[in-house]
Design brief:
Layout lengths: L3 E9 L2 E8 L7 E11 L1 H10 L11 E9 L11 E4 L2 E2 L5 H4 L10 E2 L11 E5 L3 E3 L6 H4 L2 H11 L9 E5 L3 H12 L4 E6 L2 H9 L5 E3 L5 H7 L5 E6 L4 H10 E9 L11 H10 L2 E4 L11 H8 L9 E5 L6 H7 L7 E5 L2
Parallel strand pairs: 10-11, 10-13, 11-12, 13-14, 14-15, 16-17
Antiparallel strand pairs: 1-2, 3-4, 3-8, 3-17, 4-5, 5-9, 6-7
Helix pairs in contact: 1-11, 4-5, 4-10, 8-9
Length: 347
Amino acid sequence: MADTMKVLALHAVGDLRYEERPIPVPEPDEVLLKIRAAGICGSDIQRVLTKGTYHFPTVPGHEFSGEVVGLGKDADPALSGKRFAVFPLLPCRACEPCAMEEYAQCKHYDYYGSRRDGGFAEYLCVKTWNLVPIPDGVSFAEAAMCEPCAVAFHALGQFGVTPGETVLIFGAGTIGLLLAKVAKAQGAGKVILADIDPKKLDFAKKLGFTDVIDSSGDATEQVNALTSGRGADFVIEGTGVSPALENCLKCAATFGKIVLMGNPIKEMTLSQKAYWEILRKQLTLKGTWNSSYSDKKNDWVAALGAMPSLNLNEMITGKHRLEEGIAPFKHMADRNNFTVKEMFFLD
């Protein structure tokens, strides 16, 4: 093994450098992971181009997978040579949520790719606790999508998909498409995808989702036409904009379930008419955040276990090399370009 590696390091907003660094040495409770695939998340685009990370320089990237090529002194030798996805959150283990094993709500967490170096590198030292085994038949690229896939599992798990019911998803981006794939795999009778971008709806059709609607206005009539007038049993708001929230309430069936997961772009408002929908239909609303990763519930293990039947490779719209630097981020940020999941592949 060489002594140095290539990384993409963010030195300031907009200053992403392809540079050489020494290969790190794992701490006792870590392994050295040779990274094989790393997905570019929408949050990575913001970190690189507009928001920055918590300190500079930082290697971004929190969606990645690889194989163990080095061991800390306390790491199990059986880990050597094995393939893993990586849960990127490192909990403090001292706060109340951590005591409940609700690590996504940790008050003082660390995080690969934003608060510490992440996966846009040839190698990374990773805590053994954060390693999730990749099943046979699942590629490194698919495993690198475990983070958004686990988020989808977690959102659907707020209520659970009842076999045969209609699931309506507002937002047909990466997470929306993953939600649709998982909902279908879990037995939904009908999956409806709604978005204002015709390119996203066309891509959803290519993936086999025939029930897609343009939600740029009131979507109630279109949803009613697809559900014999009763509305959707399970609705997910995945955009973080007020019009989509209004549509969720209007399109839900009486006694329907609604999960709110879209990060708000700005202040969320609700009309009086839409608020009445909650009351008169006796709707149940729940929020969702991140994913569960503990002994009592592990969305990551569930997501990886389901991947052989989900065909996630068809969602990859761009394959990149680290030496391309900032170019893939600018490409994704340009709304004239259509992308779903862009990914770095490493030898």
